[in-house]
Specification:
Layout (H helix, E strand, L loop, with lengths): L4 E5 L4 E7 L5 E6 L5 E7 L7 E4 L6 E2 L4 H8 L9 H6 L4 E6 L4 E7 L3 H12 L6 H19 L2 H13 L13 H4 L4 H11 L5 E7 L3 H11 L8 E3 L12 E6 L5 E7 L7 H19 L4 H8 L7 E7 L4 E8 L3 H18 L3 H17 L4 H12 L5 H10 L2 H11 L5 E8 L3
Length: 429
Amino acid sequence: MPEIIEKSNAFLREKYYSFTHSSGLPVYVFPKKLSTTYAIFATRYGSIDNCFKLAKDSEFTRVPDGIAHYLEHKLFENPNGEDTFTRYARYGANANAYTSNTMTAYLFSCTEHFAESLEILLDFVTTPYFTPETVEKEQGIIAQEIKMYDDHPFRRLYQMMLEGMYERHNVRINVAGTVESISHITDKLLYDCYRVFYNLSNMMLIVCGDVEVDEIDKICTKVLKPSEPIEIIRENPDEPASVFEPRRERAMQVAKPLFGIGIKDTDIPSDPRERMKKNAAHSILNNVLFGKSGEFYNKLYVEGLLSGQFDFGYEINQSFAFNALFGESSDPDKVYERFLECVANAARDGIDREDFERSRRAMYASMVKCFDSTEEIANYFLSFRVDDCDLLDYVDIIANISYDDVMNTLREVYLPDRYTLSIVKPLEM
């Protein structure tokens, strides 16, 4: 057995174990006496990684946009033609996969036959099979998916907001790419990207459920082949602090205008704990300023400027960060005006201290509740771990974050040149 490290949180009475398997794969195990076991096999490879090199290389390699998502689709194919989902179905497991800006994840949940399901997961992800014929066939399928996304108003709105915020950073690129970009993807390019980003040292396995560490180690040993660690260098273009375009509009088939307000944050701490602190501060601010129990939403709702379709969220990792508000409104410009007034007043006068404390406590309670679900634990853990952060640390950060921490974040980030407004309006307007 490799060296096993235990990390715990005494207040939460939660713990997990981590070890590096002899193959080079980092493994994280959350023991939970729950009926469902959940496992994720993920790689730090997302849509932003279209220009990279290994430490030993002299030049960067640029690949077509959307190739990480394309690769996710193709890994479900097997040389014998057997569908991976059929393999899972034999054991009653549910499987899925997704690609984001920063990672690709393959996962399953099961109530029994965990060992067999984990073997399938490790096997199909580490056994790539591409041919020119199968790659060409997939282009049509993914092209239809891209067209469907482009026709989805809220998806289109989200993409417009990213394009308005970012001038150079690859987060402005659609995760699936474009119909034109994927037409350049070949089996050779897929294998090239696979060899770089699916190196086990760039991946992680997260398991949450009624499982034993030594059982997982044995299954990994049975399936995985040792790999030499590699150092991947990703292109990181300089991105201006101000937004690229303050306003973007598009007409689509919608009954009422949709809006997206993006708040660009380019002050990204190198320390993982500081990134988690900023994440917590923004989440509290969102709930205080824009939550449905707050003044901003309720006034606009009563005035008919906001409907129930209203949401917000903050995202941060090592290379980009932003806050976003989305909703439906008969007058998006008026909503934007009220947004500017709301944040200006909060920066000048401060947010209500009781609202701060209420939001912090609610957020803490929500994070504690996530430990009742193997799925939530695994997904939350992955979202932090891929950014070199830790879920158990995040809960402590929420518990200890101060009013001044939150106010400093508000005054440092909410600046006029960091805002962009995107609008999807009805075709007849």
